[in-house]
Design brief:
Elements lengths: L1 E3 L4 E4 L5 H26 L11 H27 L5 E4 L3 E5 L6 E4 L5 E8 L7 H4 L6 E9 L2 E9 L1 H8 L9 E2 L24 H4 L4 H13 L1 E2 L2 H20 L1
Parallel strand pairs: 6-9, 8-10
Antiparallel strand pairs: 1-2, 2-3, 3-4, 4-5, 6-7, 7-8
Helix pairs in contact: 1-2
Length: 249
């Protein structure tokens, strides 16, 4: 989610952070109990006649539906006001990186910056966490900028239609190299019974033609900034614009 001032744009990362998800789950449980008793009290009125015989089951079903609807609205509102604390601030020529665990770092886009971009589909491997909650048809787009010791990795999960805008050739946009998670994730029968986890990427994978992308992907797991598709577009358009301006000078 982005906010803007007269001279900069702030992009808040990790919209669905762990604390927010915990709060939403607790709110859903509370909302269900309250909704159940509300519906149950309404169904006790004489007006309902024989329907009252099914008050318990109807209260469970309708209470759950009502609780889910209220919780969905609560989650949307909460995402707007409760940020993860990780954010990117884009000004005219720089990106200021604010992470909860490190001091603010800055990448000056007018100086030399190395970049790497890759993408993969959310199927063909055993997903966990955030990726498991998304459709297997979606695509992850990731972009790494590095200047000296300062590294920034941003990524976003997009439905196929929105991802295609970034994957088409031409238009002056950076091309996203495709990697295949099935190359590194375990697919054995025994691995399906444990909790999903990130794989250990072998030296063989890291030394092949996709090695640099897998090294960046490994860093993304620990330090990546997840942006919404809307904010990812803002970020990419800003970076691409500055890179194109620099190339023409």
């Amino acid at each position: 989610m982005s906010t803007a001032s007269s001279s900069s744009i702030v992009l808040h990362a990790d919209q669905e952070h762990d604390n927010l998800r915990t709060a939403v789950i607790l709110f859903l449980i509370t909302a269900f109990f309250l909704s159940y008793w509300l519906v149950y009290a309404i169904l006790q009125a004489d007006f309902w006649g024989s329907v009252r015989d099914y008050a318990v089951s109807l209260s469970c079903v309708l209470g759950l539906v009502l609780a889910l609807a209220i919780s969905a609205g609560f989650e949307v509102w909460l995402k707007r006001v409760w940020h993860s604390g990780r954010r990117l601030t884009l000004d005219e020529n720089s990106i200021h990186i604010q992470d909860k665990l490190t001091n603010e770092q800055t990448i000056n886009l007018t100086n030399n910056v190395s970049h790497l971009q890759w993408q993969f589909n959310l199927h063909g491997y055993r997903r966990g966490g955030r990726e498991k909650r998304l459709s297997a048809n979606w695509v992850c787009l990731a972009y790494q900028l590095q200047q000296g010791e300062t590294r920034l990795i941003v990524h976003s999960y997009l439905p196929p239609q929105k991802a295609q805008v970034w994957l088409e050739d031409g238009s002056g946009r950076p091309q996203f190299h495709k990697i295949n998670p099935g190359d590194v994730y375990e697919s054995s029968l025994s691995s399906r019974f444990g909790a999903p986890s990130r794989p250990v990427i072998s030296n063989e994978v890291l030394s092949n033609s996709d090695g640099r992308y897998w090294l960046a992907e490994r860093h993304r797991w620990d330090e990546g900034f997840e942006l919404t598709p809307h904010d990812f577009a803002i970020f990419m358009n800003k970076v691409t614009e500055l890179q194109n301006d620099k190339a023409t000078k």
